[in-house]
Structures are given as C-alpha cells and as structure tokens.
C-alpha cells in the first residue's frame, strides 16, 4: 500500500512541478503557450525542465516508498510513458519529432534515477544512525 501512495505522490509531484515550470516559463516568455507550436530552442528548455520535474517526482516516490524505491520509480516512469504517448499523439505536430522521441526515452530512466537518489539518501541516513 505504501508503494501505491509513493507512486501516486510522485505522479502528482511531476504534474505540479511541471505546471509550475510551464507557468514560470510562460511569464518569462509570453509567446510560449504549452499547446503551441514550438521551435527547437524552446523544445530544449521544455525538455530540460520536464525531465527535472520527472526527477523530482521519482525522488518523492523513492522517499515515500522506503523499500523497492527504484522499482517504484520505474513504475512511475512507465505510467508517465503511457500518459506521454497519449499526449504526444495529440500534439505530435506542435514540436520537433526529436523532442517527442527523446522525452519518451528519458521518462523511465530519469524517474528511476530520482528514486535511486532518494534510496541512496535513506541508506546513508540509516548508516549514520547506526
């Protein structure tokens, strides 16, 4: 049950952090709107902050799950891939093809790495406490 809540918390973390970055980027660059057609420069920026939000979501998942943190991070990433495929099909022409391909390829490893970082932190804390 803890794993379910960890994945759910990671999922909502990715959504909230990603929306916050979208809002902030729109304030800095008013011409950008999330469903608009974007060029390679904006696509690269969106790719970076999108993967950062996935990393944070994976980290939250790993912190909450305590055990099997990488597995839970992979599950979170797989859930993200499913949702990304659905969104990318709808918005395929809005960004360069490389953006969609790289974004899909990075979701699972970035999420798993975030969970791995959380697990390493927990292991270091446990060793320090012992």
Give keywords:
single chain, 130 residues, mainly alpha, 4 helices
Count of strand segments: 0
Order of helices and strands: HHHH
Helical content, roughly?
over 70%
* Total DSSP helices: 4
Q: Give the overall shape.
A: elongated
User: Would you tell me the structural class of the helices and strands?
Assistant: mainly alpha
Which percent band covers the strand fraction? under 5%
Cα radius of gyration in angstroms: 16 Å
Q: What low-confidence regions span 5 or more consecutive residues with pLDDT below 50? A: none
End-to-end CA span = 27 Å
Mean pLDDT rating: 90
The domain count comes to: 1
Largest beta-sheet details: none
Task: Set down the secondary structure blueprint.
Layout (H helix, E strand, L loop, with lengths): L1 H27 L11 H26 L3 H22 L6 H33 L1
Task: Please characterize this protein's 3D structure.
This protein has helices spanning 2-28, 40-65, 69-90, 97-129. It is mainly alpha-helical. Helix 2 (40-65) runs antiparallel to helix 3, helix 2 runs parallel beside helix 4 and helix 3 (69-90) runs antiparallel to helix 4. The two termini are 27 Å apart. The model has no long low-confidence stretch (mean pLDDT 90).
Short description:
The protein is mainly alpha-helical and 130 residues long. The protein is built from four helices and no strands.
């Amino acid at each position: 049950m803890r794993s379910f809540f960890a994945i759910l918390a990671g999922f909502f973390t990715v959504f909230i952090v990603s929306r916050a970055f979208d809002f902030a980027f729109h304030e800095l660059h008013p011409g950008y709107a999330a469903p608009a057609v974007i060029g390679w420069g904006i696509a690269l920026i969106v790719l970076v902050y999108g993967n950062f939000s996935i990393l944070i979501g994976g980290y939250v998942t790993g912190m909450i799950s305590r055990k099997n943190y990488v597995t839970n991070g992979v599950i979170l990433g797989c859930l993200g891939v499913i949702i990304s495929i659905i969104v990318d099909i709808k918005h395929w022409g809005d960004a360069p093809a490389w953006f969609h391909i790289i974004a899909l390829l990075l979701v699972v490893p970035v999420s798993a790495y975030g969970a791995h970082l959380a697990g390493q932190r927990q292991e270091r804390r446990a060793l320090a406490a012992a």
